[in-house]
Structure formats: C-alpha cells, structure tokens
C-alpha cells in the first residue's frame, strides 16, 4: 500500500514533509528559532508559503521552523560506478507547519551560499523544485541507511552484544534479560560488513557514498553521537519536536519506551533490591566498564560513565539497549522498501551534479540524474530483502527460550505483554480511517532483536 501511495504522491510538498516525520528516517527533524548563517533567506522569498498575516520572523519566534539538517557530506569521496563518478550532495532543508501539514519551505543544495548553490523555493519552476526535493531525498537515503539504521542500531547494539558475551556469565540476570534482544545481531552485522559495506559490497555497487565515503560519514556521526540521544524522551525534547502534529513515530516511540522501561525496572527489582546491590556486583561493573571504555571509547561526546552507581542508571542503560534493538530498529528498517520502492522518491544515487540554474532544469535532466535501470532494480531488491519480515521472527515481548522461571519475573513479563497489547490496540484504533497508516511500530511487527 505505501509504495503505491508514494508513487502517486511523491511530488507533493506535504508528502515530502510527512516523510520527515514518519518516513524511514524520522529522527532528523528539529526545531530552530533562527536561520543558520549559511542559509541567506529573506522574508519576501518565502512569504507566499506562509499563512496570511504572518511573517518569517514571527514564524521563527512563535512556532519555530523545522530544518531537516544537511549532513556534512562535504569532503566525501563520491563512489565510482561503471567508470562514472556518482554525485554526493550537501543540503539544508527548512520546513514549516502549514495548516494541516508539514511542508517543505525551501532547500539549499549545498551549504556554502553562492551563485552555484541557489536556494530553491516552492514557487520556482516546477521541475527545478522537484529536482531539489529529489536531491534532498537522495541525501536522506545515505543518512538513514548508514547513520540512523546501520550505525545507530546495528553497530550500537553490537557493543552490548560483545560486552555481554565477554563479561557476564549465562546465569547472570542481566545476561538473561538481554540475550533474547541480542539474538542473531552479531551474525547479521558480520554479513553486513562482508556483503553490504565491504569494498565489493552492495553499497559500493549502487550507493553514492559507497566505498570510502560511507566510512568518513560514519566517523563524523560518531563524533556527535550522545547517550542521551538514544533515549526518546530526551531526544524529542532536545530536537524541539514534542508538539509537532501527526508525528506518529514520536507518539509510538514514547509509548514503547515507557513500556520497555517499566519492564526493565520490574525485572531489575526482582534481582537487585537496592542501589548497593548494583554497586557491589563485580560482574556488572566489569560489563559497564567494557561498554564505556571499549565499545564507546572513541565517541568523544557519548557521555556514558564507566561505572553504575544505582539501579536507575542500570535500568536506563538496559532500556536503551532493548529499545534500540527493537523499536528503533523497526522504525528505520521495516519501512525502507515502502519508501524506496518508488525509486525517484528516495534514490540511492544521483548521476548528475546538483543543478546550478533553476531555469535550465528539464525532465531529461531529471531522468539522467536518477539511478539507471540496473541501479534501480538493485535498490528495490536490497531494500525489499532488508525490510521484509523474517520467517523465524520473534515479536517484541515473546520469550520462547524462557530464560526466567521465577514467579516474580514471570509476573513482570506478563505485565509487559499486557502493555504491548494495549499499545497495539491503540495504534490500530488510531490508524482506522487514515489514508496512509503508520504501522511500523506496531508491537506485533517489531522483532525482539536485530536479525536483518
């Protein structure tokens, strides 16, 4: 249903804005109170896109605008495909709430103002405006696949996998709590390294940032990655995204975070009666030291202590691990075929440079810029393969291995399942009658671990 909807509506501004909220990369949008210095836009340029009797300054002061910030693609080595240098774009995109929808207000394809980096506006020639949006969506493909998906779920959870297997015995309650949520993650990450992001992998064959570019882009993200940004309640507050309308990803994420946090708190309370029990557990302290000093040692802004001082810190850390391996991975992974199947909506590569003359954009230029037939087929195939439900998937909250047999622990698990059932019913009820439903965070569709 979603791919067909994309094919019909991908050119519309409101749909572009919707994807910034609920698409494959819903954690990028943030609020701003002033325009960046490298985005020279005057009120007259955008007045036609604003509501009656308002101005750009008023929008900034009262409502705030919402940039889908350009990632630092500058300085990246573009991929070489079939002897042609693919194109890596930089962009800065500003959106605003307009009546019932979030719409794109303006885009700059490049982050250094100049004659060769014009600012694109909705009242520009239609084909120029369309190509500008395609370029933003192309950059979005690089960011969501490499950063939001691979780095911030797969590779991040791998740190917990390695530390848990190295430092905790199989009878430790934290090992038993995490084990179902780490199932197959190391295996799929090994396959990803050899088949997707290797020197001869899929990304090298079809993606603009394949090869050296993806490593540089990932390294830049690691430099700004923080522990707090992995906690939804803090993340939405920091991005100023707590009041955006129809932000289903936010609403469902917070419900799932609360359920997971409550579940983890209940389980930890069964085995740790007080804060001193956590402090005096040598295996647990060795485990957190491994995570902080081995797993995230090269992440300068991460902000995770190398010791656990109380139960609350342990509960939050475990909640981050479980939420990331379940709900967050589902939000970025499960819908990728839906948003990418109609390739012009989210192209994996662009074969021509960004336009420098709005009036010179033609349909022929757009077609020549988009992926060719073989690249299109490969993008569709890989996003289908990565986003499809797995035949042996275990849904969130189901524990067929039965690591815990204590009655108190079983009661906590039963409460967790009841909360997930209530969330499922709420989401299904909320989506009744919606022209475009958002079901990616339906608990029954969230896997218990990262397996693909």
TrEMBL record:
Its cofactor is Fe cation. Fe cation binds at residues 149, 154, 329, 452. It comes from the Eukaryota. Keywords: Cytoplasm, Dioxygenase, Iron, Lipid metabolism, Metal-binding, Oxidoreductase. One of its GO terms (biological process) is lipid oxidation. The keyword Lipid metabolism applies. Binds 1 Fe cation per subunit. Pathway: Lipid metabolism. PROSITE patterns: LIPOXYGENASE_2, LIPOXYGENASE_3. It is found in: Cytoplasm. SUPFAM superfamilies: Lipoxigenase. One of its GO terms (molecular function) is oxidoreductase activity, acting on single donors with incorporation of molecular oxygen, incorporation of two atoms of oxygen. InterPro entries: LipOase (IPR000907), LipOase_C (IPR013819), LipOase_C_sf (IPR036226), LipOase_CS (IPR020834), LipOase_mml (IPR001885). Residues 1-452 form the Lipoxygenase domain. GO terms for cellular component: cytoplasm. Belongs to the lipoxygenase family. This is Lipoxygenase domain-containing protein. It comes from Oncorhynchus mykiss. The lineage of its organism: Eukaryota, Metazoa, Chordata, Craniata, Vertebrata.
